[in-house]
Write a structure and sequence with these properties.
Layout: E1 2-10, H1 16-32, E2 38-43, H2 50-54, E3 60-66, H3 69-77, H4 79-91, E4 92-101
């Protein structure tokens, strides 16, 4: 399984209408790109543990799951992804994206 992880911080002065555009782009991508296995969004949970101080502070995450690398590539080439990516770049003060090839434990231990 491939995870596409986007961590982001909206611009502090982002108008409500722009926030709605970003949310709409997320919903459109989920609805129109059938290779997305699962899609979730969330807010950062700060635990007070030492690793909280080491991490960059991204208050939001968008997490996409795909069955394969080919499905991720299909998603990345889709026009709905283009609109979504533009929204992240336009409306975020900071954003980072990562892709991970994950497996269930113990099978995934060979990747270490």
């Amino acid at each position: 399984m491939i995870l596409h992880v986007v961590l982001f911080t909206p611009k502090p002065d982002l108008p409500a209408g722009d926030r709605v555009q970003l949310i709409d782009a997320l919903r459109e991508a989920q609805a129109s790109i059938p290779v997305i296995r699962r899609f979730r969004v969330g807010t950062r949970a700060v635990t007070g543990r030492p690793y909280d101080a080491l991490a960059r502070d991204f208050p939001y995450i968008a997490l996409f799951e795909f069955d394969s690398q080919a499905d991720l590539e299909t998603y990345l080439a889709h026009p709905a992804h283009d609109r979504l990516a533009m929204g992240f770049y336009q409306f975020s003060a900071a954003a980072e994206a990562y892709d991970f090839d994950v497996a269930e434990v113990p099978e995934g231990l060979e990747k270490l």
